[in-house]
């Protein structure tokens, strides 16, 4: 069979490339990229596979090239992220030239600019638009025209439709977990190891203006396919699942069916997922808790109802407060996401966001700067109005603000983000709570999680994105 390498390329900083998204790891956390996991399940029947996660394995470019040489791939499928796009393209060019491999790229920056990148860079042989497409393996194998794949024909012409399609339920089989460095992954969202990432749906129907997922069509994974993966994870001794859905709680009946499937096929595994505040209540949370859910990720984004309405969040402050209260009453921890610097925001709006974070007091608070990621409505607006450098293609929500829209300056946004971390994490009660919860971990993880939380509290621009020493 042809030899195919799934590659998460090297990076000078610990850069996350996952599920079309990317950012610098704020404190050394890293999890298996769902893109590569799903592709490994799809492609394993058609190719001899190898996986290199150079970031998780801490591989410099030279060592990574050596491992690629040892495998001698016919095809390289490589992730490209918004934080490291320039270096990703440079590595793809080098690898393709040295090994004479066909190079396919997958990642958020290329989703809606795929033909543009194929025009600009002749070393790219194809762009994967939907890694969950049911027929993707055949299209890659035969280099034939189909949905969700752009590719360069024998004559150099670019073929395929630059449109992401989902046709009914999707399946990707059981990923080749044995090829991934599972012991290298850790995150404060997972209390036990080893952990796995699982995708039960694609896209998000909400469509927030700053988010890429709203531009992807929503589709659900076949429950039979999903439950087969659950059974494998149980046999493989996986202790924790991170669901990679942008919005796990879109369909209540489906969530209940998945919870039943977890209880029946992998009882005892703990898990976390992302939820929209308007779609959860105590009844649903009780079902999720009984099936092993211990944490939900909720995008709060702003403490200003005006900003939430402006960006199509479909929730307001009251809805968020009710969702957090319900989680606390049912004993489910929350990771709350908060954004500073959205165009139209004022200094008072940013302060309202921080005040709301302090009031809600989630287990983890993630403060980010607004980023016009390629393909989002926010990017379209920023480029149209000249709010960002027209040459800029790399963005990092964990890094420095890049939008200058004549309101809040990037310096003001950066200062607020750094202040928010210190204000949130350096409260005496929060320090005590984190210390007590960390005691439930293994000794090594106890040290890691204490370091994780308090590095966030001390975070400034010069700390963000440094590689973990643990």
Q: Could you give the topology of this structure?
A:
Blueprint: E1 3-8, E2 15-18, E3 21-24, H1 34-43, E4 48-53, H2 61-71, E5 75-79, H3 85-99, E6 102-106, H4 114-120, E7 126-128, H5 136-142, E8 149-152, E9 158-159, E10 195-198, E11 201-202, E12 219-220, H6 223-235, E13 240-243, H7 252-265, E14 270-275, H8 282-290, E15 293-301, H9 305-310, H10 317-330, E16 333-340, H11 347-360, E17 364-369, H12 377-385, H13 410-425, H14 428-438, H15 443-457
Parallel strand pairs: 1-4, 1-5, 5-6, 6-7, 10-13, 13-14, 14-15, 15-16, 16-17
Antiparallel strand pairs: 2-3, 7-8, 8-9, 11-12
Q: Can I get a quick summary?
A:
The chain is α/β, with parallel strands linked by helices and 470 residues long.
Describe this structure in words.
The protein is of the alpha/beta class and 470 residues long. The chain has two domains: 3-159, Rossmann fold, CATH 3.40.50.2300; 187-457, tm_1862 like domain (pyruvate-formate lyase- activating enzyme). The protein has helices at 34-43, 61-71, 85-99, 114-120, 136-142, 223-235, 252-265, 282-290, 305-310, 317-330, 347-360, 377-385, 410-425, 428-438, 443-457, and strands at residues 3-8, 15-18, 21-24, 48-53, 75-79, 102-106, 126-128, 149-152, 158-159, 195-198, 201-202, 219-220, 240-243, 270-275, 293-301, 333-340, 364-369. The strands form four sheets. Strands 4-1-5-6-7-8-9 form a seven-stranded mixed β-sheet, with helices on both faces. Helix 6 runs parallel beside helix 7 (252-265), helix 7 packs parallel to helix 8 and helix 14 (428-438) packs antiparallel against helix 15. The longest helix is centred in the last third of the chain and has 16 residues, at 410-425. The radius of gyration is 21 Å and the shape is globular.
């Amino acid at each position: 069979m042809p030899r195919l390498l799934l590659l998460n390329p090297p990076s000078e900083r610990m850069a996350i490339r996952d599920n079309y998204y990317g950012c610098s790891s704020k404190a050394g956390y890293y999890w298996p990229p769902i893109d590569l996991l799903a592709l490994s399940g799809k492609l394993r029947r058609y190719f001899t596979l190898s996986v290199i996660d150079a970031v998780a394995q801490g591989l410099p470019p030279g060592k990574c090239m050596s491992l690629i040489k040892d495998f001698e791939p016919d095809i390289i499928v490589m992730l490209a992220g918004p934080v490291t796009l320039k270096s990703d393209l440079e590595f793809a060019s080098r690898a393709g030239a040295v090994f004479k491999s066909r190079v396919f790229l997958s990642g958020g920056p290329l989703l809606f600019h795929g033909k543009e990148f194929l025009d600009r860079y002749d070393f790219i042989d194809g762009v994967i638009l939907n890694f969950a497409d049911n027929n993707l393996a055949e299209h890659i194998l035969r280099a034939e025209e189909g949905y969700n794949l752009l590719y360069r024909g024998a004559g150099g012409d670019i073929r395929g439709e630059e449109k992401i399609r989902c046709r009914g339920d999707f399946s990707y089989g059981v990923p080749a977990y044995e090829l991934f460095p599972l012991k290298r992954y850790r995150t404060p969202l997972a209390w036990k190891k080893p952990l796995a990432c699982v995708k039960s749906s694609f896209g998000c129907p909400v469509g927030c203006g700053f988010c890429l997922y709203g531009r992807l069509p929503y589709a659900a994974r076949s429950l039979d396919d999903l439950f087969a993966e659950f059974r494998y994870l149980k046999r493989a001794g996986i202790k924790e699942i991170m669901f990679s859905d942008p919005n796990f709680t879109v369909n209540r009946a489906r969530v209940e069916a998945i919870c039943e499937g977890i209880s029946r096929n992998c009882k005892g595994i703990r898990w976390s997922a992302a939820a929209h505040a308007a779609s959860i209540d105590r009844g649903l949370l009780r079902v999720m808790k009984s099936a092993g859910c211990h944490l939900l990720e909720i995008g709060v984004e702003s403490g200003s109802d005006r900003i939430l309405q402006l960006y199509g969040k479909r929730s307001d402050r009251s809805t968020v407060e009710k969702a957090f209260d319900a989680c606390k009453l049912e004993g489910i921890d929350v990771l709350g996401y908060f954004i500073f610097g959205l165009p139209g925001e004022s200094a008072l709006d940013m302060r309202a966001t921080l005040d709301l974070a302090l009031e809600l007091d989630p287990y983890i608070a993630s403060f980010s700067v607004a980023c016009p990621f390629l393909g989002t409505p926010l990017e379209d607006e920023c480029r149209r109005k000249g709010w960002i450098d027209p040459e800029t293609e790399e963005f990092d929500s964990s890094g420095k603000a890049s939008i200058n829209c004549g309101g809040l300056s990037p310096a003001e946004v950066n200062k607020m983000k750094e202040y928010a971390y210190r204000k949130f994490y350096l409260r005496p009660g929060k320090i005590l709570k984190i210390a007590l919860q960390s005691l439930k971990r293994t000794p090594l993880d106890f040290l890691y999680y204490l370091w994780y939380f308090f590095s966030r509290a001390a975070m400034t621009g010069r700390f963000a994105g440094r590689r973990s020493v643990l």
